[in-house]
Amino acid sequence: MSKVYMTDLLVEKVSLEDSPVAKIGKLLELAGIQDVVEKGDYVAIKVHLGSEGGYRIVRPIFIRKVVEKVKELGGKPFVTDTCRPPSLDYLEIANMQGINYLSMGAPVIIADGIKGEDYRIVKVDGLILKEVEVASAIADADAMIVVTHAKGHRQTGFGGAIKNVAMGCVAKKAKGKIHGVMGEPPMWLSERCERCGICIKACDHQAISFKDNILVIDKEKCVKCYRCVWSCPTKALTWSLSDVEKLYMAMADATLAVMKTFKPNKVLFLNFVMDVMFICDCAPIATIPIVPDQGILASNDIAAIDKASLDLINKAPGIPGQVGLNKRIEVLKEGDNKFLKIHNVDPYRQVYYVEKLGLGSSRYELIMI
Ligand code: SF4
Ligand code: SF4
């Protein structure tokens, strides 16, 4: 049974030691950071840099504490994510979010180069994928601390540590492969389309254009992220849910490839089960969380930490308010598999496939600090 350490967000005294911010170092120690980071190690601190318009990513002050802990152990940290928008645009977003060299005390870099094409090919005996383009700065790092905001995701149901590694540590080509297992690019329904151009702006890959008033999706550029589908106000773009299971398998394969670039016991995970929105940090918005803040978790087991995070979210009562775009639906209840209800895909399947590939255990012991 794997150990998952957790601090809740209740504080007993108005003192720095009682702040969840101050507890990051302790959580990392309990999870074994002193065995993971050796003097002189290049340590990737993998975060999600968010989106222009989003504001519920892991707050910079927490990431800074991870940086400080790595430095204390003699490691050389860098804060990193991979291209979603091209690198320079993404770094500007990071800056707006308050994540830069000055605030972090460490370099902030994009792990797969300025255009998402800097990677190392890693061969795996995966469930679907046989080789994965892992972002070069991740592959070249000696150790990694995966800092994850636990939240929903419209395609995968849940965005936890698995998604942060599988999609967030690989280059553009691999992201395309993972999304690609789902089939074709979105379909366009001309009669519903108001030619507003919102989807064109939503597409980070410049794959959409209009030619003679007809919407065209460039198959070479489209990575099947379906961001355009969700951005369309009239539902003129659609996709099929039937291949989600394959998507989960490909994510597990990519996780395997990323983990393979590290020696054993060189990766730790921190999950922030706070600000749990129905939607992911890529969205250019943020909205009312679906459950009260639960706490911060640390573990060296990717399957255990995501399973524990999902269990906490599902055991929690729902918060009244918005859980879907443009609609307020009934408050989710204690015990509901919340992301299954919201997104119609079961997020526990991510954990199942990662466990199947031997990357961790869904059986865990939750230890409160
Ligand atoms: S699915 Fe839509 S938003 Fe995503 S890359 Fe393809 S065209 Fe662009
Ligand atoms: S967002 Fe929807 S309505 Fe607007 S141009 Fe794109 S497909 Fe048409």
Keyword list:
369 residues, alpha/beta, Rossmann fold, Alpha-Beta Plaits, 8-stranded mixed sheet, two-stranded antiparallel sheet, 16 strands, 32% helix, globular, binds iron/sulfur cluster
Kindly summarize this structure in a few lines.
This protein is α/β, with parallel strands linked by helices and 369 residues long. The chain folds into 2 domains: 2-179 and 242-368, Rossmann fold (3-Layer(aba) Sandwich), CATH 3.40.50; 184-238, Alpha-Beta Plaits (2-Layer Sandwich), CATH 3.30.70.20.
Distance between the termini: 18 Å
Structural class: alpha/beta
The CATH homologous superfamily of the largest domain is termed LarA, N-terminal domain
What is the domain total for the residues? 2
Strands across the major sheet, in which order? Answer: 4-3-2-7-14-15-1-16
Structure report:
- There is one protein chain.
- Helices cover 32% and strands 20% of the residues.
- It is of the alpha/beta class.
- The protein folds into two domains: 2-179 and 242-368, Rossmann fold (3-Layer(aba) Sandwich); 184-238, Alpha-Beta Plaits (2-Layer Sandwich), CATH 3.30.70.
- The chain has an eight-stranded mixed sheet, with helices on both faces.
- Helix 11 crosses helix 14 and helix 12 packs antiparallel against helix 14 (348-356).
- It is globular.
- The structure holds iron/sulfur cluster (2 copies).
- One iron/sulfur cluster binds at residues 193-199, 215, 231-232, 234, 236-237.
